Amino acid sequence: MAPIILNCDLGEDESLEQTEQLLALIDAANIGCGFHAGSPEKTGASIELALKHKLRIGAHPGLPHAGGRGHILPTAKEFQHLLEQQFSSFQATAHALGTRAEYIKLHGSLYHAVETQPDLSAVYIHFLRQQVQPVAIFALAGGEFAQAAEAAGLSVVHEAFADRDYLPDGSLVPRVEQGAVLSQSEALERLASWQKNGKIPTRGGVPISLAADTLCVHGDSPDALELIRNIRTFLETHKIECSRSRFS
C-alpha cells in the first residue's frame, strides 16, 4: 500500500480538548465552516490548533442545518451560494491566521449528492475551477465525481473511509441504517484486509478493489481517538508511511 494521508472530520461540536487530541494523530484536518455544526469561533480555534500541529488544512462545508445531513438537497443556485458563503468565510478566517485551505471536502449529504446529481457536480466543479489559488478536492475513491473532477483538470485526493460500511457499488451504507458506522474491531479487521489484498469487504456483496490516497475517520465516531491511534499503529507496523507534504 502506498503512503496514505490519515484525515479526520472535526472542528464541529466536539470539545476543543478532543479537537487537539484528534489533530495530534492525523495528517489532514477537515474543519467545519461553522454552519452545519460548530461555530465561526470553533473554526478559527481548530485552524490555529491544526497550524500548531503542522497539518494540511481543508474546508468542510455542509448543509446549513443541524448535522448537515438530510434528503432535501439544495438547488444548483442554492448550492453555488452555499459554497461561496462557507468557503469564503473559512478562507477569511484562515487568512487572518496566516494560512489557507489547501483542499475542500464536502460534508454529509453534499459529499454523496455530487456523486449522483449531475447539476450539483457541475456547480462544484465550476466553483473550484474559478478559485484564484488551486484547491484540491477530497472525493469518494472510485466514485463518479472524482472521475469528472479529474477530467476537468482538478486535483483529486481519492478518499476511503475507515469507520463506514460499504455497499457493493462502492458507495457508503447510509448512516440511518444499522451498522453503517463500524465498531473499532470491525474497522481494524477491514483495514487489515484492505492492506493485504487491496479490497474492501462490502455489505451483501463480494469485496471491491479500492485504491485511495487518504483514509478518513469521523471525529464523532464512537471511540474515534482510540480508533485513530490504532490505525496509526497499524500503518506504522506495516511500514505504510503517512504523508504530510503539500498537495501538488
From TrEMBL:
Hydrolase keyword on record: yes
Keywords of this entry: Hydrolase
EC number: 3.5.2.9
Main enzyme class: hydrolase
UniProt cross-references to Pfam families, sorted A to Z: LamB_YcsF
Single GO term (MF): 5-oxoprolinase (ATP-hydrolyzing) activity
Protein name per Swiss-Prot or TrEMBL: 5-oxoprolinase subunit PxpA
